[in-house]
Amino acid sequence: MERLSKTGLVIPDRVPWGTHLCQFYETKDDLLEILVPYFREGIAAGESCLWITSNPISVEEASNALRAAVADLNQYLAKGLTAYLEQVRDNGSFVGELMARRKDGSMFQVEVLGRMTFDDRGRPIGTVASCFDLTARREAEARRQESETRYQTLVENVALGITLMDRNHKILAVNGAHARRMGRPLEKCIGHECYRVFEKGEAVCPHCPGTRAMETRKPEEVEIVGVRDDGTTYAARVQAFPVYSGQGGVDGFIEVVEDITDRKMEQDALRRANFCVEQASECIFWIDPGGQIVFANQKACEVLEYSREELMAGTVFDIDPSMTREQWAPHWEEIREKKSFVIESRHRTKSGNVFPVEVSVNAMTFDGREYNCAFVRDISERKETEKQLAHFSAIVSSSQDGIIGVSLDGFITSWNHGAEQLYGYTAAETIGEPVSMLLPLERFDETSRLLERVKRGGRIEHFDTVRRRKDGTPFDVSVTYSPIKDNNGHIIGASAIARDITDRKRTERELLHAKTAAEAASRAKSEFLANMSHEIRTPMTAILGFSDLLLAAAADEETSEACQIIKRNGEHLLHVINDILDLSKIEAGKHDMEFQSCSLQQLVSDVLSTMQVRADAKGLPLSVEFRGIFPDRIQTAPIRLRQILINLIGNAVKFTETGSVRVVVQNDATPSESRRIRFDIVDTGIGIAEDHVAMLFQPFSQIDGSAGRRFGGTGLGLAISKRLAQMLGGDIRVSSVLGEGTTFTVTIEAGTLSDADSPRPRAVTAERNGSPAAGPTALNCRILLVEDGPDNQRLIGFLLRKAGAEVTVVEDGKQAIEHIFREEEAGRSFDVILMDMQMPVLDGYGATRKLRGMGYQGPIIALTAHAMREDRQKCLDAGCDDYLTKPVNREEMLQLVAKVTAEGSRSEAPGCPIPEPST
């Protein structure tokens, strides 16, 4: 409880400092006596302190300021404090606001804070109160409220988003603009982390400027892409400002967000526009009325070889040599009047190069000033193209070929002078007319088919057809159709170039007639050779066959010598006809070249054995030498290679009287190269003069007619050998010294040398004393011999019967079929049929085909004097099982008959029932 000292000062009993102070004084009253003067001075010096007694109500003490401000303090208190004193008596204190009057008569509002004071016995004796003038406070509060209202209005209506956040990025306040931009109500923003509300992230955004602002203690700025509640995005510029605490720390930050989406779009549009201008393929200039260049794009700088600064410091007169200052004024007036037009001019580069340009001129006004916006295009290529087109146009106009333009629907669009000469129509008569007017009736659908191909981008070249002239006469032409395209590559028509080929067609017909005649002559030649072969070989069969029989039965030496002369001359005649047939086949491209794998060593050994007899007869040594490494086998046509070697070795033996004949086989190629085998036939004979070498390989030619009479021969052997060597991939060369000898060199291709790892072949020598020949082949079969020549019937029948066969002879194919039919019915079938292919009535080809058509399955062997390769195939195609040529070789015939009859015996029946042949 408080008490009132005798000085009137209220001293709380429980105030610690009062207790402490009393330790230095005997009583509180002693202390109060010292303090009261200071207390009174404090009240007097204060602004609104006073001491009020409650009974009666009067002011005992009051501050000088309060007494000066209030006109009648006791009257004011008596009127205004009565109610508050009642409250003090009830509650012990009071707080209230009162209206007071100043000495000048003005009223003002005061705040009164009062507390009851008591005496030692606890009786209230007065009140201590403080009065405060509220005028300034109220005015300040009004100003603050007005300021807050203005601020709130500003913050709420500004377009910027404003957010106050603490250090943890929790939103303390946010304005409506930001909340509306995000599509969220304010209550769903306050108290939440900003990155969950506005950024949709799971952690503080790494680019957040607020984090950096709190770290650096200075404003930070960044551009971001924000995300709204509906998922849409916006571009924003975010500024963050740190918020400081009273102790100098940072409590959070304020973010100011500016939506720059529209600005970014405008900037992007501006950049795109600027990019388009800078990247344009045309030069773009802005020129003012005085001819000054105020803008130039990058293309203009590149084309004119100036920097942008240099161009913008120059004038139109610097780059356009055709424009002068005197001409510019009327030109500007023309631009202003026409607004826009296109002209052709020239521009000059920094280096002085002048080139043609096309200028699109456009008058415009920008920021109140007039300009000429010029788009400039380099037309050098176009001018060159126009020049070429003019040149081509002159060529087209003067061309003798008919060159016309055709629309895709088939109408004539252009017509040159050559077309007038070709068709007889003028351009006026044809342009706009259907192109079918140039076609004969039977070819009316031709143009539509050609144009369909052109529409698909096709080109028809050198199409031979027929066209019709104005007078109705048809003529041969070669037409080329090509698509015509516009600048965009679209096909808009076709060009048709027609050339009169009447003379060419006539020449082709004449050539075709000549070719047909040549082919007929070739066929006639082949038929003649075939017939000649037949006519010679058929009697030769009898001559050589019977000479063998006579030679075997000769009783005296004179008869034996006569038979040998007959046989030797017959064989010579047979050799001649073989050479003629070989050459004929080579020239006709029908020579048999059967390539196969063979042993080189064995082939050379066989040739040596064959030729050894001739060499021995003249007492000449014959040897073979291998040089180099050779494979076990080579790939070639062994029959033709053997023919070449026999022919060359035979010639060497023939023309050598003393000395020797050597065959040297060489292989000088590496394993990775093509295998080329070389044969050198070296003799020590009569030799050949150098000027006669070129004649060696000509058919039917001999160096010296006397040599032909002396040594014999047709002059075909070397010609045939050379051509055969070329067909084997090689050639034949010759070197010779007259009177000393000759070397013929033969080369052939024989595959690769990848397997050429065999040792060098041993020297080959001929076997002079071979094993005795086997005896003649024995037969035990029934044979039907179909042969029209009596001599051959007798000879072949004799040889077959002597070998043990039963032989039946008929003269033509018809008799053969009838005889076979009768024998089949009687149960006596033939084991084999020897069928001559050239016979009267029905030849062997027809008879064989008819037999096979009737189901006959027995073996049939063809006998023919034709020796061409196609003759053998013709026999096999007719149905023959095998083939024998005339003159017939006895042993070969017997062995073949034995072979086919042995094969036939393994089947159940060589023949089969056949219907009776028609007559």
C-alpha Rg (nearest Å): 67 Å
The biggest sheet amounts to: 5 strands, antiparallel
Decide which structural class fits the backbone: alpha+beta
Number of strands: 34
Low-confidence stretches: 1-26, 705-712, 756-773, 906-919
Quote the average pLDDT: 77
Strand arrangement within the widest β-sheet reads 4-3-7-6-5
Specify the number of helices: 29
- Name the shape in a single word: elongated
Proportion of residues in helical segments: 40-55%
Q: Beta-strand level of the residues, as a percent range?
A: 25-35%
What's the multimeric state?
single chain
Distance between the termini: 172 Å
Q: What does this entry look like structurally?
A:
The protein is an alpha+beta fold. Helix content is 41%, strand content 27%. The protein has 29 helices and 34 strands. The strands form eight sheets. A five-stranded antiparallel β-sheet has the order 4-3-7-6-5. Helix 21 runs parallel beside helix 22 and helix 22 runs antiparallel to helix 24. The protein is elongated and about 200 Å long. The chain starts with a strand and ends in a 14-residue tail after the last helix. The N terminus and C terminus are likely disordered.
Give structural attributes:
single chain; 919 residues; alpha+beta; five-stranded antiparallel beta sheet; 34 strands; disordered N terminus
List the helices and strands and how they pair.
Blueprint: E1 2-4, E2 10-12, H1 16-22, H2 28-45, E3 49-54, E4 57-62, H3 64-69, H4 73-80, H5 82-91, E5 93-101, E6 107-118, E7 124-133, H6 135-157, E8 161-166, E9 171-174, H7 176-182, H8 194-197, H9 209-216, E10 220-227, E11 233-244, E12 250-259, H10 261-279, E13 283-287, E14 293-296, H11 298-304, H12 308-312, H13 316-319, H14 325-338, E15 340-348, E16 354-366, E17 369-378, H15 380-398, E18 402-407, E19 412-415, H16 417-423, H17 427-430, H18 446-455, E20 460-468, E21 474-485, E22 491-500, H19 502-553, H20 557-587, E23 596-599, H21 600-618, E24 622-627, E25 633-636, H22 638-654, E26 661-666, E27 674-683, H23 705-711, H24 717-727, E28 731-737, E29 741-752, E30 782-786, H25 790-802, E31 806-810, H26 813-825, E32 832-836, H27 844-853, E33 860-864, H28 869-878, E34 882-885, H29 890-905
Parallel strand pairs: 24-26, 30-31, 30-32, 32-33, 33-34
Antiparallel strand pairs: 1-2, 3-4, 3-7, 5-6, 6-7, 8-9, 8-12, 10-11, 11-12, 13-14, 13-17, 15-16, 16-17, 18-19, 18-22, 20-21, 21-22, 23-25, 26-27, 27-29, 28-29
Helix pairs in contact: 19-20, 19-25, 20-24, 21-22, 22-24, 26-27
